[in-house]
Each structure stands twice: as C-alpha cells, then as structure tokens.
Amino acid sequence: MAENGLVATYVLWEGLDLTVLKFPPGFLWGSATSAFQVEGGSQNHDFYDWALKGRVKDGTRPDEAVDFWHRYPEDIALMKEMHHNAARIGLEWARIQPEVGTFDQSALEHYRKILTALREAGIEPVVTLHHFANPMWFVKRGGWEAQNAPEHFLRYVGEAISCLADLVTWWVTINEPNVYTTYAYFQGIFPPGKRSFFAAQKVRKHLLLAHREAYRFIHNHYRIRGFSEPKVSVAMHLRTFDSARKTSPLDKLAVKMLHRLFHLQFLDPIADSLDYLGLQYYSGDLVRFPLRTLNRPGLPKNALGWDIYPEGFYRVLTWAWQRYRLPILVTENGTCDEADELRPSFLIQHLLQLHKAIKQGVTVLGYLHWSTLDNFELVEGLSRRFGLIYVDHTDPAKPRRIKESGRLFGQIARENGLVISEFDETSESSGSTPER
Ligand code: BGC
Q1: Is pLDDT larger for residue 383 or for residue 11?
Q2: Which strand ranges, in their side-by-side order, compose the sheet holding 292-294?
Q3: Which of 7, 20, 200, 432 is the residue whose CA sits 20 to 30 A from 160?
Q4: Alpha carbon nearest to ligand 1 atom 12, residue
C-alpha cells in the first residue's frame, strides 16, 4: 500500500487477472456545469447577446439550454444514479443582479432550492461565481476593462454569499481567468471580441484583484457567521506546451513565453489566496516560434480537433503540485464527442494518469468531469456534446439518458476506484518530465 492510502489489488475474476486501482478515501467524484450553459431562461448576459449577433458556430442559441433551471430535480437524480458525491454548478450573475442596483431575491431563493436538493441527495456542491458570462449592464459600463469592475463583481459576490453561505463550502470565484482573458480580449472569440494585448493585461489584473477581494470577503463572512472554513479557489485551465521542433531554441523560447503568459502570470500572483487549486485539463499544444500552437502528430483527436493527450494530465497535475503545493480539485476534464465513442476510454486513460499522480504524492481531493449533460457549448452551440448524460435537443421535452460513459463513471465513483484488466504497471508508473 502506498503512503497516501492508495491500493492496487489484484483479483482473479472469471479467469481474468484484474487490477483495482483505488482512490483516496473521501475522494470527491462528480461532474460540472456552468450556469448559462445549462439553465436556460437568462437572456441578460453577453453570451446570449453573442449568440444573437450570430457568433455561435452552429447557429443555435442558449434560450433554454437544457432547462436545468426547472429540471434540476431530475438531473440531480441522474447524478445520484451516477454515484456522484459532488457536483459543480454555476450562479448566473445576470440573473441575480439584472440591473446595476437590483438584486433578484427570487433567483437567489431558487439557487437555494437547487443547492438544498443537492445536499439532500448527499452531493457536495462546488459553486462557481463567474463562468465567462457577464450581465449586459456590466458590459455597458466597460466590462472587465473598467477600473471599477472588481467593485461591481464584489457587490454581487456579497449578495450571493450572504444568501447561500450556509449551503456551500466549496467556491470557485472565477472560471479559467486565463482562457477568458485570452479568448475575450486577445483572440476575440468570446464577447466582447477584442484583440488587444493591453486590454487583456488590464482584464487579467482586474480578474485577479476580483478573486483576491472575493477570497477575503468569503473568508470574513464565514468567520463572522461562525461557519466552518470555506474552500475558495479559481478554476484554472492548464495545458502542456512543448517545442514543435525539439532542437529549436526559438520554439523553446516560445514555450517559455506561452507558459508565462497563460499560466504563471495568472496563478503566481494569487497563489497565497487559494485554499485549494481548481485545475482543469483538456489537452496540450506543440508551440512554434513566434507563438503558433499545433497538434501533436499521431494522437487521436476529439470532435473539435483537440489532441487526446492523457499524459498531459499527469504532467499538469505534478507541475502544479510541485510549484504551489496546494491540494488539487480537478474542476473540469472531459471531451467533445457526439456519439460517446471516445469518452469511455478518454475517462479511463485520464483517470489512470490521475491515479499515477496521486500515487506519486500529489494531493488530489476529487475529480469533476466536464460535463454533467450535453449543454450549450459556449461558441459552438448545442450540437457539440461533452455530457455524461445525453440530451435530445430536438425534442421539446428534452429527454435525458445516461450515456455509456456516464454508467462507467458511476461504477468508478461507486467503487472509488478503477477495475482494469491488462494493467500495464509501466504505463502508470513511468512519467515524462514537463519541459517547462
Ligand atoms: C469551460 C467550459 C467549456 C469547456 C469545453 C472549459 O474551458 O470552462 O465552459 O464548455 O471548456 O469547451
């Protein structure tokens, strides 16, 4: 048995040599969503506006999304069926604060109902305060570029925390500050569609300040009310970057630059105000000078053309642990796959890497798969599927069905471990060193 309580036991079952890879006791198993991608009924934010402007690739709109707002009891029952003991959901800022001076208490009450239902099902909620979308009144006042953006955000955070604190321990202040800054202000893919390095730097500073202030506020609030310590983090998207041409010093330089721009300048300044590290991993890139990212030849790709690179998961986990020594909660990991053909093996391959990282001493508290349901994929639309649960978007009743990957996930969560045959010790124990 390893020091951290992990076991690999070998069993003989119907003549097969099986290995059970156990995860630490109390490990959190669940899946994740964000507010506007699933809720429906909220039209007062910039991603809705973006869809109206024709910026969603398949032309769909998040009007109803998957109607989680009303169907949450059914969805929570399905989470339970998949043996979740944790789930990440989002709050929609625009719904809670529809105008600068107005807070909608009925929306907050509704979130209380959702959170209570999760708790009653024995599912620990992990709640995101900001997941890409912003209220239109905030956008009209300059969005995250405005000097007083963190102040606006803090007022919303104050209201949300005051109302929900008794139901929540785990908070994510800001989802992927690095992806948001890059996509919204540098590459122009997310609203407001800017392409400016200087705007992006300003936004980065404001997001990090907003996180710090929210972190402080949440901790003070819990202390004053005598609640046990909250756990607060950002949800950080980490990728592996490697030189496209192994021996090129210029490519190596580009790798360093990208690592600094995309990871370090976001995490280093806030490392002292994180109770855990919310880590999200999807894929890695090869980097070519000056700053071009490329696929890795020979790897399978998902429906969006992203490399399926499980080893990168191990690399980012070990890198983050070595640098920050913070317990890690995987707040997202998943893939886009319309027919659920890739997802089952994607899941297993990534969990093997996660297990390997834990076995080598990385403290990991849990794993939340992206996503619970086939939801509204940001700028791709409804046609792109990331869910453990299938949703028929063409039927007005939006029927749900747990996919094969969802069933597999449920078994793993129930066993708190993976049962595998043909286990190759070397694939779990060998590791490559991150280049950066
Ligand atoms: C985001 C999700 C998104 C997922 C798949 C993550 O970076 O947090 O909102 O749906 O990627 O693209």
Answers
A1: 383
A2: 241-243, 285-288, 292-294
A3: 200
A4: 377
Q: How many CB atoms lie within 10 A of CB 212?
A: 16
- Which CATH number does 23-237+262-285+298-395 carry? 3.20.20.80
Question: Measured from the CA of 179, which atom of ligand 1 is nearest?
Answer: 7
Residue 178 CA to ligand 1 centre (angstroms):
12
- Quick one: what percent of the chain has pLDDT higher than 90? 91
128 lines ligand 1 (CB under 6 A): no
Q: What is the pLDDT of residue 53?
A: 98
109 in catalytic set: no
Ligand 1 centre to CA of 332 (Å) is 8
What tokens were used for 143?
Answer: 């969005």
pTM of the model: 0.95
Q: At what angle do helices 197-224 and 149-164 cross, to 10 degrees?
A: 30
Q: Does the beta carbon of 374 sit less than 6 angstroms from any atom of ligand 1? A: no
Which of ligand 1's atoms lies nearest the C-alpha of 371? 10
**Domain boundary assignment for the chain:** 23-237+262-285+298-395
Distance 339 CA to ligand 1 centre (A): 19
**CB 377 near ligand 1, within 6 Å:** yes
- Res. 425 pLDDT band, cuts 50 70 90: very low
The whole-angstrom separation of Cα 131 and Cα 128 is 7
309 residue type, one letter? Y
